Amino acid sequence: MRQASGRATAAAAQRRAFAIAILAAGKGTRLKSKRPKVLHEIGGKPLLAHVIAAAAQVADPKDIYVIIGHEAEKVRAAVADTGVSFILQKEQRGTGHAIKVARDAISKYKHVLVLSGDVPLIRAETIRRVRDFHQKRRAAMTVLTAMPADPGGYGRVLRAKGAEIAAIVEAKALTKAQHSAREINSGIYAFETKPLYRHVDKLKTANAHREFYLTDMAALLGKAKQRVLALPAGRASEVLGANTVAELVQLDADVRAQKAAALMSVGVTIYRPETCVIDAAVEVGADTVIEPFVQLLGTTRIGPDCRIRSYSVISDSELAAGVTIRNGCIVDRSRIARGATVGPYSHLRPDSEIGEGAHIGNFVETKKARVGKGSKANHLTYLGDAAIGDNVNIGAGTITCNYDGAEKHGTVIDDGAFIGSDSTLVAPVRIGKDAYVGAGSCITESVPAEALAIGRGRQVIKEGWVGDRRARQPRATRKD
Ligand code: UD1
Ligand code: CA
After folding, report:
1. Which residues are catalytic (predicted)?
2. Measured by CB atoms within 10 angstroms of the end CB, which terminus of the chain is less buried, N or C?
3. Distance 120 CA to ligand 1 centre (A)
């Protein structure tokens, strides 16, 4: 017992030694968007939420400081539930300025890991690697670097000797000779806070953007005889930034590809995975087949042995085993039980519950509707605010009239009832067990169990009517 708590205390001390600062105050001018850059999404989740999720695996949320500025309140609200702290950088005068603004909070820690709100694919294990390398090598500054195929607009790392860095030069400031430098600065660093804050006020704004660059700390600390080291990342793809829409879309594709690969590794078949959009939190069981151009979003959970046919979009829904979703369905915040079949072209709106083995067919819309075991609504139907029992047959074109212009009302259809085609059920109304409703009925009153209800004008036949009319109007000719 004592030993365990001793270890826990040591771990807590270790955590307090490191703060994590996430730079997220910038506007993201290159995205040309109203939305702040760090709230743009990849894999269905804001960039900043990805970075916080990785950071939270390494440090307590209370030791994570997100530096916000541009649209600060929006950014804060989007990630407030993670429990991290926020520091306001009112004017965004550069990455170095952001770290200056955070001085009071950060200087309480021995070290700080700096992450970028727009470098979203960083993994917790890489953050740990930076931390451990930095500590072991007793560096004042450690820079995570990479060698992407195209170093493009990234800052370049100029090495001194071995792992030591002489300077980081922004792409725009590279001299001709420096252009061949291929090692990029990922924007992810570890600093010992004492030397950082002793020298940070020496940063100057004599550069293309008239900003305080955090990158200049490399040369500043080097000059002050402090150790500045490079740590190459295992894979360059992990530290790519999202500065332009093209970069964002590429990162999104990477995240989706990883998700599809993860699902395939647990036995899900995804045809043409590059056409599917599957959010990170989605779960799918083995032997389920996902056809091209399917979207599975939010918290969707799909059981084993299902088939999701092309062009269906399923959000925040639960599908049990053996469910078939035929082409072109929209399923939103709904539940579908084992063996049910939906579609083609069905729209399950929120709070639809489709029972075991039930069939929801072509152009059927449901909303707040429970459809019991084995029941069928195969064609052209609207079921809203309805509680439908087991083995009910809903004929083509049936409408539950749930809205009277002011309020919504419920329809109840008990087990075994048969609703003839083109019926309108004017709620509130109840159709009893095993009752029949004749086709084309407008039902305004409840129908008792086992009864037949017919609510339509009686058919009239007028024998010889056409000849009679001809006699009355000899010159009338038919236009058709
Ligand atoms: C930065 C680095 C560059 C590196 C690249 C890696 C500098 C000067 N350059 O360039 O060497 O290769 O990241 O992705 O640091 N931010 C603030 N406050 C500010 C300015 C920026 O919080 O005043 C935040 C931004 O929201 C962003 C991050 O800092 O999340 C990086 O800023 P950004 O302008 O994207 O820097 P880069 O030009 O990409
Ligand atoms: Ca950037």
Report:
1. 379 (proton acceptor)
2. C
3. 13
